[in-house]
From TrEMBL:
This is Allantoate amidinohydrolase. One of its GO terms (molecular function) is allantoicase activity. SUPFAM superfamilies: Galactose-binding domain-like. Belongs to the allantoicase family. InterPro entries: Allantoicase (IPR005164), Allantoicase_dom (IPR015908), Galactose-bd-like_sf (IPR008979). NCBIfam families: allantoicase (TIGR02961). Residues 28-185, 207-368 form the Allantoicase domain. Pfam families: Allantoicase. Gene3D superfamilies: Galactose-binding domain-like (2.60.120.260). GO terms for biological process: allantoin catabolic process.
């Protein structure tokens, strides 16, 4: 349902909502400390499903609320909690969702960030109010709108080019917030990964990101690169039914339908690499799996990527990685050396389904190829695979699902 709502409102929303939610409980996000959780626990902030309101629900502490809610403070100070991201990475924006907190929403917030592991460590800074200007400050103290349905999403675009593992969410002075969505791209420490080890190069945890798609009516394509198998259909990519499906159906010798239309989604790999096996999972899609799929791949320079974005990813550089394959319902399809056609490293892939339908997971197993080797094999001069944080270009209404960042 959340995805349906998102698809309809996509034109009015900021671009950064297309990135991955790095704090969500489904990718391992956790609240590790909160100053107060009297009315409702801070872990609710990271729930994947949209917040609910149940008029008749009360607990022994007060009104049941689907979010984090603290007591009305009668002493100096403010409430705050520490969030450990499920996927450390670069953050491009926040949605501080106050849904249903109408007389009890937190009036002001600030957010601080830290990197508390070995890679480029920096720590939370700032004074107890979170207002000190410091390296860790991502958003100055900001006013929140109450959680009425037309204004409950408080979006904050972020310019912060450092890897983040933890956040401190400060409420000034107290109150309630339903959800905190942390939009960004995972940044893995690739120095610990052997070039002889196969990894899922497109996984969200490895820094994969969806950069464009043709349709996300029921489910966003980024769901396909999430952890584990999909919980349900909403945890996969599902398009609307195409309206140009022919009345008379014709199939080729492999049983693949010959249809005029298709849907597509483009991903940038977390690291350039040589893909040696692919999994396409139609788990839960039983009456609405695509008839067939194919995968294309390429290595793009920043200039080529910009051209791809302006041509809706219809670049001449795409090469067939996986030729068209007939799909089955509710099934993991494995493709290996026999089916895969590319033997050089790539940076981007495009999954194409025909004519429409749902895929729950896409896994691209392969070896990360060192940067220089990728450059040599693609004969290009420069490849970006670490996203700069502060350069999102707004999308136009007639090209849904397109992100561009240089
Ligand atoms: N009706 C309320 O929501 N009251 C209080 N909050 C809860 N959850 O009971 C409050 O004012 O903070």
């Amino acid at each position: 349902m959340a995805e349906r709502r998102m698809a309809r409102k996509a034109c009015a929303e900021p671009d950064f909502l297309q990135f991955n939610d790095l704090g969500c409980e489904t990718v391992g996000g956790k609240v590790i400390f909160a100053t107060d959780e009297w009315f409702a626990p801070a872990r609710n902030l990271l729930k994947r499903e949209p917040p609910q309101f149940i008029t008749s629900a009360f607990t022994e502490f007060g009104k049941w609320m689907d979010g984090w809610e603290t007591r009305r403070k009668r002493t100096p100070g403010h409430d705050w909690c520490i969030i450990q991201l499920g996927v450390p990475g670069l953050i491009h924006g926040f949605d501080v969702d106050t849904s249903f907190f109408t007389g009890n929403h937190s009036p002001y917030i600030s957010i601080q960030a830290g990197c508390l592991d070995q890679e480029s460590p920096f720590t939370l800074e700032g004074d107890r109010t979170g207002m000190a200007a410091s390296d860790s400050q991502m958003a100055a103290v900001a006013k929140l709108q109450p959680g009425y349905s037309d204004c409950c999403h408080n979006y904050f675009k972020v310019s912060f080019s450092r890897r983040v593992t933890h956040l401190r969410l400060n409420m000034h002075p107290d109150g309630g917030i339903a959800r905190l969505r942390v939009y960004g791209v995972g940044l893995r420490d690739w120095s610990s990964v052997s070039t002889n080890q196969d990894v899922d190069l497109v996984a969200l945890t490895n820094g994969g990101v969806c950069l464009g798609y043709s349709d996300a009516h029921f489910g966003h394509p980024r769901n396909m690169i999430g952890l584990g198998r999909a919980a349900n259909m909403a945890d996969g990519w599902e398009t609307a039914r195409r309206l140009d499906r022919p009345k008379k159906l014709q199939a080729d010798q492999r049983g693949i339908l010959q249809v005029p239309g298709w849907e597509w989604a483009v991903f940038r790999l977390g690291h350039p690499g040589l893909i040696s096996s692919v999994e396409v999972d139609t788990n839960h899609f039983k009456g609405n799996f695509p008839d067939s799929c194919r995968i294309e791949a390429c290595t793009l320079t920043p200039e080529e990527k910009a051209q791809c974005i302006s041509s809706r990813w219809n670049s001449g550089k795409w090469r067939v990685l996986l030729p068209p394959q007939k799909l089955r319902p509710h099934h993991i399809h494995h493709y290996g050396k026999m089916e895969l056609k590319l033997s050089h490293p790539v940076t981007h892939v495009r999954l194409i389904i025909a004519p429409d339908g749902g895929i729950s997971r896409l896994r691209l197993w392969g070896r990360p190829i060192p940067f220089t080797a990728t450059l040599a094999s693609s004969r290009s001069t420069l490849i970006i695979f670490h996203l700069p944080a502060n350069t999102l270009t707004p999308t136009s209404n007639d090209s849904p699902g397109h992100l561009s960042f240089e």
